[in-house]
Amino acid sequence: MKTWELDLMFLQAAVPDLQRYLLSKEIYYPITYPRILDTAMKPPRLTIGGIRLSQERLSVIKLEYRRAIKFRELNQQISEIYEKWKSNWGRKSAQEISNRQTLWHNCLRELMEHPSSAGSQYSQSVRWRVIIELIKDYGKDYVDGFPASLAALDRLLVSITSPGPFVWEEIYKEAFPYDAFWFLYRNQQ
Question: Are residues 53 and 12 in the same domain?
């Protein structure tokens, strides 16, 4: 299954539960997918970051008409829920930022301590930093010391990586330009 297909399936499964998720205490909310996924794959759980990442990746895909209409409808529903539940959206984003910063810190520490084994994981693990970037404006007011802690992690990343080509599938490069997502253009030293 292609990444964009999973993204569309994720949004279709996530939107009906989005309001319940915003009112829940969970950061990673279980959702039911409409069709069976590859049994070897763990289906993503609902998060604000997951929604934003899927939206960004799908924004650069040339979807066939029926899927494009569905994607527009899902985006409209997401916008309506966001407008209605902005403060919950912000608090939920803050919880996710804190959690993903911890995951990202652990990933960077692993890159430092075991560069030969952890390097191949970078293209997958950098997803945590991408999600932080996508949701930081929603949750930054709810996370103590957020800009400083993220800046420290970014300095660490620069010290253990070097500039390189885009680490994800080339089709997504347009959605993640260098200026905002420079960490997607890094390689292990």
Answer: yes
